[in-house]
Amino acid sequence: MNIAELKDAIDSETLGLEMYDMISRLHPICRSITGDGVRETLAVVDERAPLNVHEVPTGTPVFDWVVPKEWNIRDAYIKGPNGDKVVDFQRSNLHVVGYSLPIDERMSLESLKPHLHSDPAHPQWIPNRTSYYKEGWGFCLSHHDLERLEEGEYEVRIDSTLEDGSLTYGECFLPGVVAEEVLFSTHVCHPSLCNDNLSGIAVATFLAQILAGRPLHYSYRFLFIPTTIGSITWLARNEEAASRVRHGLVLTCLGDDGGFSYKRSRRGAAVIDRACLHVLNRKGRPPTVFDFSPNGGDERQFCSPGFNLPVGVLMRTAFGSFPQYHTSADDLDFVRPGALAESLVTLLDVVSILETDRRYLSNNPYGEPHLGRRGVWLSGDWPFGPSNQQPLLWVLNMADGEHSLLDVAERSGLDFDSLRQAAEALLKHDLIAERGRRTSA
Amino acid sequence: MNIAELKDAIDSETLGLEMYDMISRLHPICRSITGDGVRETLAVVDERAPLNVHEVPTGTPVFDWVVPKEWNIRDAYIKGPNGDKVVDFQRSNLHVVGYSLPIDERMSLESLKPHLHSDPAHPQWIPNRTSYYKEGWGFCLSHHDLERLEEGEYEVRIDSTLEDGSLTYGECFLPGVVAEEVLFSTHVCHPSLCNDNLSGIAVATFLAQILAGRPLHYSYRFLFIPTTIGSITWLARNEEAASRVRHGLVLTCLGDDGGFSYKRSRRGAAVIDRACLHVLNRKGRPPTVFDFSPNGGDERQFCSPGFNLPVGVLMRTAFGSFPQYHTSADDLDFVRPGALAESLVTLLDVVSILETDRRYLSNNPYGEPHLGRRGVWLSGDWPFGPSNQQPLLWVLNMADGEHSLLDVAERSGLDFDSLRQAAEALLKHDLIAERGRRTSA
Amino acid sequence: MNIAELKDAIDSETLGLEMYDMISRLHPICRSITGDGVRETLAVVDERAPLNVHEVPTGTPVFDWVVPKEWNIRDAYIKGPNGDKVVDFQRSNLHVVGYSLPIDERMSLESLKPHLHSDPAHPQWIPNRTSYYKEGWGFCLSHHDLERLEEGEYEVRIDSTLEDGSLTYGECFLPGVVAEEVLFSTHVCHPSLCNDNLSGIAVATFLAQILAGRPLHYSYRFLFIPTTIGSITWLARNEEAASRVRHGLVLTCLGDDGGFSYKRSRRGAAVIDRACLHVLNRKGRPPTVFDFSPNGGDERQFCSPGFNLPVGVLMRTAFGSFPQYHTSADDLDFVRPGALAESLVTLLDVVSILETDRRYLSNNPYGEPHLGRRGVWLSGDWPFGPSNQQPLLWVLNMADGEHSLLDVAERSGLDFDSLRQAAEALLKHDLIAERGRRTSA
Fold it and tell me: Do the interacting molecules here have an ipTM over 0.85?
């Protein structure tokens, strides 16, 4: 089956529900940039997208960084003056500041307060905080709960370890006809937060599962990594592979009900940028488009000046622009099976463009070929019939070896897919010949 | 007389009336892509624009096509059950589907109906239909008449021939100083339809007549050809001449009262595109501008990828966008002498730009020359006087050998003609020297 | 002190008052394109900005021009029939047409009138007229006064000389590290007109005074010249220096209360154009921006095709677009100390960009450097603190040796100055290295 037809072959509604189930399974796990939470998560991914799981020891230098200590946590709570647990890790792993050092002490409310974080703007929600590169400890709780704490002695306990260990990441590689790669990267370091980024993990996993075993032109690499240190670590260990990346996307925040957003690669108008915008501009809701900036997630590393990879970011509502972002409200109610399904189908559309975008040379470049005589209409190879010749005429007219189908789509305003089908029909009737794809992204 | 001054030398009002008269003479002739109607039409053109008339035999291969059989028709009618002619070719040649095979039969209304074409949206108008590349026969009639046909036996007769013969086209060539060519192409294959395209035939004929015998920089070639197969045939037989085309226009729909339209060449911003838009943007009504697309008329062939000639389309209301298009309502009332005259003058403006657009080198490029001392103002060579120095200053400032007058017009917002006059005055006073024109279109 | 910090080191309010005082001193002097008025003016400039004063003899050929005769005037008046002075040069030097020949005659009002100029649209104002390149004489007066002249015999006297002498201009040169130059040019040929151009003279003088003795990368040249013939003369005598000009501005009309205007260089997007617009677009009032045109002042000469220097024009309300322009209403009330001060500070901002705009290479181009570990935040080298990392991240991401800070400012939307400070902090921490500036403007 042609990669371009995959979209029609899948049952996206069912897949949406399955992705939602996967998110439900992953939700309780306490993830951080290292530790067993990542390993458990990758084990779930591996069920559908077979992974090479890498363990990079603490202390390993990776460019300007060093792989940090490994963090694990078993339990944490704060007991109030009356002995009740007023904050309990078992109820939500967001309650503990990520990378908190172990502690087991009794202290006054006054001593405790500098270690408590809440969000007065959303008094019912627990915020998510981390302290990756500055050792310390802390708890997060709803502002509502914070305000109800009474004076007295508190028992504070975090049963965590921060020790030499390793950084864990997973890699699913699907070899294609050529060694040039398409990279999808998603981060696996967030605790019980659904849209950011269990949605990205689920969509990437299912995309890899769908593409696996298909005849692929490009080789595909899916990275399941902790943010920042993960992409830096991968890049440091894979400079050769990085040099083969022709197109790439960071996948995040793909499960909410909002319209799509796209953040351009540093190159600004790479094929991946153009392909994504071609697809997104045909959705019912116009996409929100951001130019590249050195903020955000792993695109900062992929687009660092030494690599400058053509890697954009595909999202629904953009990270940082929905109030639930990095709070307990980014929960299982915030992501929807239908939104996950649409995100997956959108990615298949983008992959279809990457796989099938080519330049052609007309075999009859002087004047138009006589389509009628060649029976294109009658043979059934052109599904749209003689009343819609536009895609055929555009492909023929632009078949000068210079213009790719994506170029033609942008110039004509026609859908890429209709042009791809036109090119297939014209190839079959020996009216055009493949000239190749652009090798540079 | 300078080509740029021709416009002022002609009596455009009289020419408008004469073009209208020519259209009136050509209107009754039944034209198709081959046959005697084309020959009669070319004979009328030849009275003003001496033509080389070419006859290309049926069966001649022309690129991917083959010259078709020649079609001629003498009479056609449908007699109703009571013996009256309910459809009569003698009243309008639009009644017969172009390229209809001969027929002489009696049949029921039921058998006849599949061969009858009408336009319910415009029940009083006879539509125009052809069946060039699929043999068959048919009649066109107003929907009003169609609905009045009664049950009974009909006598159906088309006295036509579809036999080996030739495809006929005419060519008027005006040699200039250089072998590089300006191409004007107009189609001669439509029956009694005035705006599309007797207007194009008339305007092209008069333009050729006006330019003939004038000192011309470029060589000019006027083609009077049947659509599609005509341009393909010409290109196939004239690859060398085609390679010399530097600027070109397809002329069609130039007689209605609407504002101008322009369809860009495939190149998009060729000199012909820029020259036409410069002229049209100075009309009272802003032009309708279309990007190139592989729809339409002979520009599809001239702009096929193997040729990619800088050929645009000049029209008033664009083909396909007025309701009378390809119906009996595109008649002698629909075209106006004044509109024909304005179209002709507009083309003279475009030709003036093509002929006089040049790059210059200042003889005093360091600082401004002292215009006052040189007596430019006093000598009368600068008709606009010292209070309007703008064209002079712009031409001098841009006289770096890089910028053509058209470049200067676009950058300055000044009218090309004022810049041309400035260049003439400056040349006369030895302030600039000709650097040449761009050789590439 | 870093050139970028100069702005904060000066007391602009005091400088505004001092510039206003300088204008007040210069206001009474009768200047023209030659003569003692220019010499007196340059002597005042020289008090703050030491000048090389050049005297170029009458008759010296300068490109297409010749240095004109020197004009000087001591007195002029018109006495009415009753012996009263109805026009008196001692009350305003605008009363005499610049370059008027001497005259001492009695004549009727009828004979006098062709020599009298007024502006009916502003009946209280004296217009300013000159007759540089056509010998003659005349007076300017308010339309109100003109209309009150009665019939009778008038005594007309102009005590002027128009004789061989010289053209005078001043040059203040501040050598920098490199021989490449920044050019500021201002005209000194207008009589008692404050905004055009005593404001330009004052601002240029103070800018030169502030920059003098500072460590400068570029060499700076300030020209105090008569319009047109002055810039032509300077260019003719300094072709070598002209070839070293990398950035330049004509300074005029910098004292009124209006918002800023900028006229682009002929190149259109030279660094000087981009630097000025970067600064002006951050003012409260959006600037009025003009594309280059061969009208106006000395930019016409600097941007003539043989030089094509990257020289724009910085103004507040543009020349010719305020009604007081070239009239007696362009007086000491029309210019404001605060406006002069703001113009000066704006120029320092532009100079700061020119001086500090550089391209950098990241020393850690692969992934982001670990800013936290390097203590950038803690060391105090980054004044904006860790909550505003944007300038640091942008400079690092664009530190590929291709993008200058101005490029980064335009792409990021950040202020140039914050990027400059980021670059300084990053340099100090050895995170980037200087790659150099663009050598071409």
Answer: yes
